[in-house]
From TrEMBL:
The chain crosses the membrane at residues 65-85, 97-121, 141-161, 231-257, 285-307. Belongs to the binding-protein-dependent transport system permease family. Keywords: Cell membrane, Membrane, Transmembrane, Transmembrane helix, Transport. It is a multi-pass membrane protein. Residues 95-304 form the ABC transmembrane type-1 domain. One of its GO terms (cellular component) is plasma membrane. Its main location: membrane. It is found in: Cell membrane. InterPro entries: BPD_transp_1_N (IPR045621), MetI-like (IPR000515), MetI-like_sf (IPR035906). It holds the Pfam family BPD_transp_1. This is Peptide/nickel transport system permease protein. GO terms for molecular function: dipeptide transmembrane transporter activity.
Amino acid sequence: MVAAMVKRLASLAATLAAVSMVIFLVMNVLPGDPAAVALGTSAQEDTLAALRHEMGLDQPLPVRYVHWVGGAITGDFGTSATYGVPVRGLIADRLAVTLPLAGMAILLSMLLALPLGILAASRQNGAADWIATIFSQLGVATPNFWIGLLLILVFSTALGWMPSGGFSGWNDGMINGIKQLFLPAVALALPQAGVLTRVTRAAVLDVLSEDFVRTARAKGLNRRQALFRHVVPNALAPVVTILGLQFSFLVAGAVLVENVFTLPGLGRLAYQAFTQRDFLVVQNVVLFIAALVVVVNFLVDLLYLFLDPRLRSSR
């Protein structure tokens, strides 16, 4: 098992190295001069040349790549040309919004999708199954930013129950912060809950057809006992996979919802930096998100070993 984990870590490290090369090459072929962004288009050529030298833009691409990756490994992401502050601080500040937002969205998605998917599978072709099917189809088909706009119109504009956007920070209290992130979390959670409901239903139905479930029923367990003692634990593997992918997606793909609710999150930072041609910020944010995806996938692999003893014995 240890050898398998080491092999998996090596594979993930190679994947991250390849991703970093792609990110660096793409960012450096895009039009735009970070020095001109920092100084303005009216700056003198000698001033631009001096700033390019200070930022290392006059060095060959391989040298710049090695410096960038080496700095990223040590936690030095450089300085933003637009904001004039270390990129590490910008990412840390935005993570204080994006990570709680993604965590709330995943929690809401699980609380809604897991019971609905299990109920739909246990009542196949019944009313609960039809409700779950319609909900999952609507969730998959509806964009999260449209759900966010609808939530603002109903709960902020019409009813006045929730704030329509913005984030004042956690210094104003956790309750206030959760209240400001609740509607964006719901907008992110509903489409993901539709996907998770469908996966949960399919996984539970697949396990319900196994021979060991019929054996458990033959030994005297009722339907409810067999469902929660044997079926649900064995159906968790694909659900955990989807949860890992969804968390990575919520961290990386929340840019539309963050813009709808004007949240200072990581996705909004990447969007603003791209429009301002601050490519150093963009490539560091994308690299950070890629590293987060790699770490989450590795944690999902570890969780598999606890959920399925057969994997431990085989490895």
